[in-house]
């Protein structure tokens, strides 16, 4: 496979006979085997099964049978999606002795129906609790643009595999930013759809009331097309006359100079003046954290009582802390969530899309995992979600796009819309891409070789 080939181009080439599905799959497997040791995005390869499915696609081509839209296209999944016959570990050894999945996760099944072929499971923070993909059991995933830097998390393996050109698209999950943070740091496209729009069945849960399943791609067109395939709905028309506003206040603090300049260029291109603020954003971030910690801790408490020593110590301590939160604190956070959602929905009566940074800076160094918050160094693992966590609370669709021509390592921008308005996000993203303000960040393959 040519590095950075899109899902659309791979499907077209297989359908037209320009390349076979088997040769495409073999090239993908070879590339991962040769190059993934530098970034460690993959935890398991389904080499034999993937080749068998690729040969089946080639047999369909030979028989001149109609092909589904993603026939022969390889993809990977964050290691918390069920793959039939494979033990779902959710990035932990705690689940290593559980039975293999009896069926695919709902999204994997829909993608298989569309002809796509799962190739690999991808590294993640244990039980999706983190922003670093620093896993005590399966290792650290490194950023393909600079292997001395973080890929972000918790879906870091999924973002890195796309950024490195190993796979055209991958699946991830986002509770508090686990798609948007690594998409930003790795310079790829990512989508956290509206809460509940895509089925979560077969994706190991973290926070039942906040978890969202989504994906990463190398191109906007793939992001859009694959979303509608996974949603099992026809593509919606994209609105052209959009009212856009830039979020300020909380979302304008702590920005690196390069990111501030990039956002200014976007706003100037769109003719935006001034900013919009969401009320009590710091409280929204805190409420999102409380809900996540409480639900995650409650989910894991029975297993923690039986096998706490099997957990990554950092994950274990956070889960135990969450389990000990008073019920009244959790209820208060959910009450605030309802109020905040109403305020955000009211904002969307005046605007169609809100713009906000994804992460305040480029990927932090692994040996100095800090970022600047309030003018002081702060833990990257604890604060990379500074701009994503508040926007998780209302269940909104958020598209993370890679900014172009920033003169730095990758930087990302969040486009935020009202629930169910993903089409507005695709429309604005397309305008920014056409203006040269967004697109795939150029990757130096020598750094991942």
From TrEMBL:
InterPro entries: Amidase (IPR000120), Amidase_dom (IPR023631), AS_sf (IPR036928), Carboxybiuret_hydro_AtzE (IPR014087). Pfam families: Amidase. Residues 26-425 form the Amidase domain. GO terms for molecular function: catalytic activity. PANTHER family: GLUTAMYL-TRNA(GLN) AMIDOTRANSFERASE, TRANSAMIDASE. This is Amidase. The lineage of its organism: Bacteria, Pseudomonadati, Pseudomonadota, Alphaproteobacteria, Acetobacterales.
């Amino acid at each position: 496979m040519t590095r950075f080939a899109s899902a659309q181009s791979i499907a077209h080439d297989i359908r037209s006979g320009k390349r076979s599905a088997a040769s495409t799959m073999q090239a993908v497997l070879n590339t991962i085997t040769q190059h993934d040791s530098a970034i460690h995005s993959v935890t398991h390869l389904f080499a034999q099964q993937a080749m068998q499915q690729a040969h089946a696609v080639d047999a369909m081509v030979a028989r001149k049978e109609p092909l589904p839209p993603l026939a022969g296209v390889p993809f990977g999944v964050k290691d918390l999606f069920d793959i039939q016959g494979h033990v779902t570990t959710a990035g932990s050894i705690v689940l290593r002795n559980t039975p293999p999945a009896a069926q695919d996760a709902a999204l994997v099944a829909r993608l298989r129906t569309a002809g796509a072929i799962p190739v690999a499971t991808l590294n993640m923070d244990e039980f999706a609790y983190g922003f670093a993909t620093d896993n005590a059991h399966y290792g650290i995933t490194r950023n393909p643009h600079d292997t001395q830097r973080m890929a972000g998390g918790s879906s870091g393996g999924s973002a890195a595999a796309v950024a490195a050109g190993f796979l055209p698209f991958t699946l991830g999950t986002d509770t508090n930013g686990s798609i948007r943070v690594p998409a930003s740091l790795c310079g790829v496209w990512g989508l956290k759809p509206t809460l509940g729009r895509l089925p979560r069945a077969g994706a190991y849960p973290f926070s039942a009331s906040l978890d969202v399943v989504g994906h990463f791609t190398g191109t906007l067109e793939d992001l859009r097309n694959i979303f509608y395939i996974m949603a099992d709905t026809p593509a919606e028309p994209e609105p052209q006359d959009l009212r856009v506003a830039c979020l300020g206040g909380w979302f304008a603090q702590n920005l690196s100079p390069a990111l501030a300049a990039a956002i200014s260029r976007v706003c100037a291109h769109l003719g935006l003046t001034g900013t919009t603020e969401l009320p009590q954003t710091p409280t929204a971030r805190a409420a999102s954290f409380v809900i996540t910690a409480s639900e995650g801790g409650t989910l894991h408490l029975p297993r923690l009582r039986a096998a706490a020593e099997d957990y990554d110590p950092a994950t274990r301590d956070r889960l135990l802390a969450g389990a000990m939160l008073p019920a009244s604190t959790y209820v208060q956070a959910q009450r605030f969530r309802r109020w905040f959602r109403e305020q955000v929905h009211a904002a969307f009566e005046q605007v169609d899309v809100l713009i906000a940074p994804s992460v305040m800076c480029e990927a932090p160094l692994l040996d100095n995992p800090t970022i600047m918050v309030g003018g002081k160094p702060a833990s990257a693992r604890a604060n990379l979600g500074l701009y994503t966590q508040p926007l998780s609370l209302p269940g909104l669709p958020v598209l993370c796009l890679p900014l172009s021509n920033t003169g730095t390592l990758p930087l990302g921008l969040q486009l935020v819309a009202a629930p169910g308005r993903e089409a507005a996000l695709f429309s604005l993203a397309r305008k920014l891409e056409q203006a040269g303000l967004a697109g795939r960040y150029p990757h130096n393959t020598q750094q991942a070789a």
